[in-house]
Structures are given as structure tokens and as C-alpha cells.
Amino acid sequence: MSEVGAVVFDTDGVLLATAERHAAAWKEAFDGCLADWAVRTGARPRVFDTVRDYRDLVDGRSRIDGAKAFLTARRIDLPVGTPEDPPGCGTAHAVAARKERIFAEMLRAEDATVFDDVRPALLRLREMQVRCAAVSASRHARSLLRAANLLVLFEAVVDGRDADTLALPGKPAPDLFLAATERLGTGPDRTAVVEDAVVGVEAGRRGRFRLVVGLDRDAVPQVADALRAHGAHAVLPDLGPLPALLAALESSRP
Ligand SMILES: [Mg+2]
């Protein structure tokens, strides 16, 4: 068995090509409220940028934390509200609920897409007896993994529903990843984390994981730099080189 006996994968953007849909749902949720917020604040907040704002403000965060980050960035002062708020524009929770409703409607229309490199990498890791878990801040992750026939390749899953039940704080806190290692029966010192979001690699470093791998699927140099600056030990373009990277750790062991 290799020195790294387990890998915890982020789900959106790492295993499933759901990032674009999340970004589109956030855009519809935020931009649909701009007129309302202009009336409230007298300002004209900028529309949501599905590349930059998605990456900097909402990717990897829980829905409510993402909504709050956007509102803060645009200086839109709304009450936080409560998780029971119906979809709307009047509180941070209402905006988060808008995004959830829009995203759920999008999911009904389409199936989850798995990146091509995911299955071969997971099968190779299984041959290497490396245990794998999937983690997500999204409440939809487990059902999407099941729909994509990926669930069988993971020994543990921790998603947004588990985070709610266990009252785990979202990334950059390491709690979601640590809950996954607990379910795998291993420790962070023997586990690698694979993440595409800055808050996620930060969570991996805060949790003192043996190896934090940043994933830069679009090969954007600034993204790779940001992942490294926030704690990624290595940045890969896809999951293809991951098994060899873990094997190299083993062979470089003193
Ligand atoms: Mg992600």
C-alpha cells in the first residue's frame, strides 16, 4: 500500500462537470435580483461574472456563504434571514434559496456529466488499494454521483446534507474533508485531497492533509498560481497523473 492510503475528492469541477451549471444558476439567481437591489440601495450593482465571480466568491462554498460573499462584494446590505426563507431577493437566505430552486430545475432537465479522466483514475487507485471518498458542499452531490454511476467507486461520501446533519462548517474549514477521512477509517496524515477551488485547497492545508492537489482543468496559469498560493502542493490538469503522483510519494519515502 502506498504512503498515501486514501484520497478525498471534491465533487463539482473535479469529478462532475457541474460547475458551469452551478455558475449559470448563480447568475440567474443574482442577476434576477439586481433591479430589486438597485431600488433598495440606489446603486447599480454589476452583474454576476460566471468565470471570475464564480471562482472568487461562490465556488466550493456552501450556498449561504456564497450568497453572502457576493452581497458583501457588491456592498448590498441585506438581512441574513433564516433557512426557511422562500426564494426571493430580500435576504441572503432568500437569494440562496433562489439559486437552489433554479439549480434543481436545471438538474431535472439534464443528467450529470463525468469528466473522461475520472473513471480510469479511480479504477487505478482501487488497484493500488487506495481508498476513495467524494466530498461536496452541495446537497445534490450524492444523488448526482449515483445518477452518473460513480457512487460504487467511493467508500464514503460527505455532501451538503451530511454537513447540515452534522452541523459542519463549510470550506475553507477542513471539517467536510476530515469527516470523509473518518468514514474511510484513515487520518489526514495518510490522505490526499483533490480540489479545484481555492477555498478547497485551503481547507486541505488547514486539515494538515499529507498531499493537497489542485486541479486546473482549464489550464489557466492564474488559477494554478492561486491554487498553489492557497496551499496546493501540486497542480494537475486532470486526474490522469494522480495515481503516478501517489506512487512517486511512496518510492521517495526515506
Ligand atoms: Mg469544486
Which helices and strands occur, and which strands form pairs?
Layout: E1 6-10, H1 19-31, H2 34-41, H3 52-58, H4 63-73, H5 92-109, H6 118-127, E2 131-135, H7 141-147, E3 156-158, H8 160-166, H9 175-184, E4 191-195, H10 198-206, E5 211-215, H11 221-229, E6 234-236, H12 242-251
Parallel strand pairs: 1-2, 1-4, 2-3, 4-5, 5-6
Helix pairs in contact: 1-5, 4-5
Bound molecules: magnesium ion.
Order of strands across the main sheet: 3-2-1-4-5-6
Sequence stretches where pLDDT stays below 50 over 5 or more residues: none
Provide the β-strand percentage band.
5-15%
Describe the sheet with the most strands.
6 strands, parallel
Rg, rounded, reads 18 Å
Bound ligands, each once = magnesium ion
Global shape: elongated
Question: Considering DSSP H and I runs of 4 or more, what fraction of the residues is helical?
Answer: 40-55%
Number of helices: 12
Structural class: alpha/beta
How confident is the prediction overall: mean pLDDT? 93
Number of strands: 6
**Which oligomeric form is depicted?**
single chain
Distance between the termini: 16 Å
Helices and strands, in order, run as EHHHHHHEHEHHEHEHEH
Structure, briefly:
By secondary structure, this protein is an alpha/beta fold. The chain is 47% helix and 10% strand. It binds magnesium ion.
